[in-house]
Amino acid sequence: MGVGVPVMTWLFRIVVAFLAVKLVTLGINLRRFAVLRPTRQPMRPSVSLLIPMRNESARLAETLPAAATQDVAQLIVLDDRSTDDSAELARGILAETPHASVVTGRPAPAGWTGKT
Length: 116
Fold this sequence. Notes:
By secondary structure, this protein is α/β, with parallel strands linked by helices. It is built from three helices and three strands.
């Protein structure tokens, strides 16, 4: 029994010394590194949302109001030369959304067949 006591005493001292070093390190880090605080004004994300459409007038009334509420810098609706009233309907729905615009696409070049 006499041999085990000094070993436990040394082990106890090593553990206490280790914890003391960790505590001192924590104190130094708390003084050295600044605490991050949130900014006063949240930054607006620099993301643009592009929605391509072609003859989608039946779906625009439920889709565009939800898209207009997204926290994006810019909302672009690209009308791919619709033959229905999709572009006019989209402009009407997005009229009150300052960061939204409806752009009409150009016709395909002569002889262009798209992806092959």
